[in-house]
Amino acid sequence: MTVKFNQQSLENYLDSARKYPYLPFSLHIFDSLPSTNQKVWELIEQGEKPGCVVIATQQTAGRGQWGRQWISPTGGLYLSVAIAPKLEVINNYQLTLASAWGIASQLRNYGVNLGIKWPNDLVLDSRKLGGILTETKVSQGKIHQAVIGVGVNWKNPVPETGINLHSWQNHQNFHPISGLEMLTATVLLGIESGLNCLHNEGISMLLSGYLNLLTNMGEKVYVNNLLGTVIGVSPQGNLRLQVIDEIHNQLITPEISVEPGTISLGYCKNSV
Ligand code: BTN
Q1: What confidence tens digit (pLDDT) does each residue in 236-245 have?
Q2: pLDDT tens-digit map of 42-64
Q3: Label partner for 203 (CA 20 to 30 A): which of 30, 196, 210, 242?
Q4: Is residue 244 part of a domain?
Q5: What is the CATH number of the domain that holds 104?
Q6: 120 lines ligand 1 (CB under 6 A)
Q7: Does the beta carbon of 154 sit less than 6 angstroms from any atom of ligand 1?
Q8: How far is CA 203 from CA 96, 100, 105, 115, 258, in A?
Q9: Domain limits at 185?
Q10: How many domains does the chain have?
């Protein structure tokens, strides 16, 4: 399948939605790339500024979280954005939390009932619709540059645990997202609004929005043979668990905190 991306249409969506842009988007659109994240880093090396956006209609070496591959055939959305966040390195996960919340909220405005699976998965009907990979360059304990990469299943084939938005819409009585360009604009506006919220309102406000969309709240998980219940996410992006002593059926205090990448949660049925 060949996909032609209509840049003018994307620009029209962005212009009509943005009166006071937080990020000055400059668009770079390609038919095929190894990875849009990689391309943004190359463009930064060549002098591109924060707000540089790279979109590809397919990727041949898409990068996923925890060193995994992100299979990226045509029909999917693959985009990356450069930012210069000036965050402490310990807070680097806040960029992913902000983007996940922003993208999910923007799509929910159109009636697409997205939730978030900790820490970075966009879920629809308990299946993975997309994911976020944030890469950073750090010096002296501060993040100076970051690339936020987002993959969303639009019309591409997906595995058993995945879902694509085009097929989902075909099973509804409404088709709020009209095409790849509108989806791209919605995702970019979502990233922008998430970063704007983090910057202007702070992590507490952002976290309360993120937790409202978290599908894992109340889920039971085993960590080091201890049974815990998900009670939230910390400002650094760690999963917060309340642990239960199963023999005495008592809560064990203090709560435990699990870093992203240490455990993997299921696609649970909680709807938000
Ligand atoms: C995940 O593992 O859930 C995150 C996947 C992120 C994939 C996107 S696709 C666009 C951007 N370029 C990449 O190489 N990866 C990200």
Answers
A1: 999 999 987 7
A2: 999 999 999 999 999 999 999 99
A3: 242
A4: no
A5: 3.30.930.10
A6: yes
A7: no
A8: 12, 13, 16, 19, 18
A9: 7-213
A10: 1
